[in-house]
What does this fold into?
Amino acid sequence: MTAHTPHTPPFRDPHLPFAKRIDDLLSRLTLEEKIGFLHQFVPAVERLDIPAFRTGQEALHGVAWMGPATVFPQAVGLGATWNTDLVRRVGEAVSKEIRAMRARDDRVGLNVWSPTVNLLRHPLWGRNEEGYSEDPRLTSAIATAYTHGLRGEHPTYWRTAPVLKHWLAHNNETNRDTTSSSVRPRVLHEYDLRAFRDTVEAGAVAGVMPAYNLVNGRPNHVSPYLREHLRTWTEEDLLVCSDAGAPSNLVDSEHYFDTHEEATAAALLAGVDSFTDHGTDSSKITARVRGALERGLLTESDIDTAVRRQLSVRFRLGEFDPRYDPHAGTGEFDTPAHRALAQEVAEQAVVLLKNDGGLLPLAEDTRIAVVGLLADECKLDWYSGTLIHRSTPLEGLYERFGAERVEFAEGVDRVRFKTAAGTFLHAPAADGAEEQVRGAEGALDPATLTGRTDLPPLTTDATGTEFALMEWGEGVLTLRAPDGRYLSVAEDGCLRASADQPGGWIVQETFRLEPHENGHLLKHLGTGRHVCVAADGVRVAEANPEIFEVIITERGEDAVRRAAAEADVVLVVAGNDPHINGRETEDRTTLRLPRHQERLLHTARATNPHTVLALVSAYPYAFDSARLPAVLWTAHGGQAAGTALARVLAGDVSPAGRLPQTWYADDADLPDLLDYDVIGSRQTYLYFEGTPLFPFGHGLSYASFAYADLTAKAEGAAVSVSFTVTNTGAMAADEVAQLYLRAVDPALPRPRRELAALDRVRLEPGERRELSFEVPLSAFGFWDVHQGRWRREPGPYELLAGASSEDVRLRTTVTLDGEASAPRPVLSRGLDASDFDEQSSIEIVDRTKTAGDAVTPVEGRAGELVYRDCDFGKGVGEVSVTVAGEGVVDVSLDGGPVLASLTPGTPTPGPYDYTTVTAGILAEGVHDVRLRLRGPLRLAHVGFSG
It folds into this structure.
């Protein structure tokens, strides 16, 4: 036994198990103190010498928001490396910088809200940049690597505590806090839960964050899946942290509960442990908790459960054992190793999409024209830190090929704005003004940062200023003054050349030109107001907008044409600004490049056939690649992006990045953004039956590789697979060997192929290596809605090895045993309405506010449901439906006539007030049950009896 002095309470004893120490500490905390633990910003408990604590440090691809830090490529770029060891090292570097930054700024937190494991199901999702892949297995492999790096390798103490985002089925920003993702059971288990489950089970996850959206009609912050699934995957106490403002949304925007006390209690009981709401002000949340206690909606035991989970994380972080915390002295920040790692990751993230005729790599004496709006940019996104080092494509090429061999044309339109009075907009010189970089000072909430007011507002004069105009799609413009500052609007409404880059939660640097009479109005999109010329300067206002004549002094195409004509090769650098048209809160509307950039690309290609397109973007594009000899893609690559791109173009590095998601050829290939049924609507490479522009896993190399000797054998609980890869090229290079599987003759829709394993290997010229994989038998299973569990069909399965999901080099087949399909036992179980095999015009909704699913027709349509292979045995004589609302359920078998039409008669009082309606029906043997739902009713269950 351990003896304790009066001055050493058990919770301070490092020799005791964490669970006992937490028990002791909980017993010492008052109810009021424990209530204080439920908000993101936890106050100190001074009488116990417990410091304040906060959940939430953003660290998606480097330490975010807290000032200068090493900036790695965006998360989708990390996914494009297909390199788990590399991503683990990134996690290590980020967590070490968090520790180092916290040592000098205690605002930096150790509870890390990263990574994002939402699957990149739809390429128009505004937050595509935050995820790793459309594939659950690749996503979980990369996320597992990153979380292990963030956690550290010490068996007891964690360097940081990663929280996975955003639970669950969250792929739309449009009305994200009120839309519901309709997720059928197969999609739930085989797709959306899978990336979370595999990552949690790998053992380096401290918690999850629910998403803003609803799933099957129920807000994620009161999801029963937190209890039914998440907490069953690990014995660790997982800390569930709400997303910012989401607890209030339960009442304010979603109207799911009548009062905040009810909503807070429901979220806490569902499993939310820490409430991120109202910024640093905890008073509203704590008042709601007290109110819930007074109303009997919560008990002190419920609060203890949540506090225990938070304390478990804090103990693991070493907070209570500073002498034993092996990470306490970590001081690695912006080290040479971290800089080298940032460059290595940026290089490995570059994907060579096309290289006809071997145009790349470029010869040393190549004369290069570098053109495009992103050619001299190193863009950051909302979850970036502030750059310490910076490398643009132009700077990288200058460094690699020499400035004398590189010509630059940005391709902006140069314009002047003439007022109705005949004067021109003028940006006064900011002589002596201090240079400021947005976010350099660090902020717990960068959304609160405001624009500069220390610089002079725009005025008008006789000659005016020539501004650089850039169009980013859908008519959204930015305007830049000659000194490099972007036009922006601060809180006082004045228009200034004041921003180093577009940015902020609400971007204040974007505009739109609106035709008006004989000129244009200039609308500021951040405020929704128009630019006017006032006596005290140029500002935005509700009234008296100025009508401008826009005088174009130079077209961007003209500058591009001049540069392209003199070059051996033209490099067009195109893509997106991560703060504009596709970001958190804003989905894209099209896969197409912005018109401005399409014009520049067309001009370069028409002037010089040796045109290379380098896309630097957070998401895929659709474009005409037929006349382009070479195309590359990289996500925004962080601080070393330009150097990395230049080294790939020069052949210092052979590209080996691979696409982590399908690049579709046209908008017409995409499902509706809110259609989450990847099976029914044939989404992602798993089910898509069209021809993509570039397939999942695609990426070329400067070397060539031969695959051979594929073998596969079922042994025990896995299939052992091996094959060889040989570098048949002339240079050392990485190859990403990919193994896929598919059911050869499935009884129901299964993926065309799905990733089973991967390995990124480096091979010298002529080197041959055998790769071996153990594919667990569970990977061959599917969620059987007939039985409500996983099942593996017996029969043949094909294993495919190659360089992408479509570039298959080797195939072999294994025959596996399994469990044969059986008819649905409808006499004993009936049919849960959401367990359909096929549907049309159906949405899944919440059966009650706490658990269960029901189905309802899409508003204004009749819904169709099919349940295959229902076994009625020797016969039934009655059908019953459990329904709420009003409408009709038509029942038929095998596509035949309607056998019964059931209606509740009078509408039920509310959506959760179910009634059972019965009718006669005669059926025996095995049949497909077809239901047709008409009207605004909810169907929860169908039963059959003799």
User: Anything to note?
Assistant: The chain has a mean pLDDT of 97. The longest strand covers residues 705-715. Residues 111 and 161 are 5 Å apart (CA to CA). The longest helix spans residues 84-104.
